[in-house]
Amino acid sequence: MDTDLTNQVNQALSTNGLVSIIVSLMCIAVSWWALQNLKLDLIIRQPRGAQGRLLHLLLAIILGHAVSGFVIDYLSWTQMLRHLF
Fold first, then answer.
1. What angle in degrees, to the nearest 10, is found between the helix axes of 50-80 and 2-35?
2. Do 19 and 75 touch, CB atoms closer than 8 A?
3. Which of 2, 13, 49, 72 has the most CB atoms in a 10 Å sphere around its CB?
């Protein structure tokens, strides 16, 4: 009986972890796509150089992480609502 509960908990944690990874990667990809419209040449000297591309990548990761944190929290909150009723 304890092994069934342990397996269910492990499966739930694994599923949540996989969903978090997928949501994070999707949000970073969407952030990368959205930042393509940003004119970095107004801010930095060589936007097509290695440092400019690295800055673009870091901005996408930072923005994607923030958005995915919100989305993951929102999914968690909606799952908690079923315990309300």
1. 140
2. yes
3. 72
Mind listing the pLDDT tens digit for each residue in 18-38? Answer: 999 999 999 999 999 999 998
Condensed to tens digits (0 to 9), the pLDDT of residues 55-80 reads 999 999 999 999 999 999 999 999 89
Total-model pTM: 0.83
Token pair belonging to 41: 């040449």
Q: How far apart are the first and last CA of the chain?
A: 27
The CA-atom distances, in angstroms, between 15 and each of 20, 32, 40, 82 are 9, 26, 38, 18
